[in-house]
Amino acid sequence: MTPSRKEYLFKLADLSENSHTGNFLSEIIGEVIEKIGANKISAIVSDNASNVCSARQVIQNKYPNIENVRCIVHAINLIACDIVKNSFGDRLLKKVNILASFFKSSHQAGAKLTQLIKKHEINGGGIKLFCKT
Question: Which residue range(s) make up the domain with 99?
Answer without folding.
Answer: 87-119
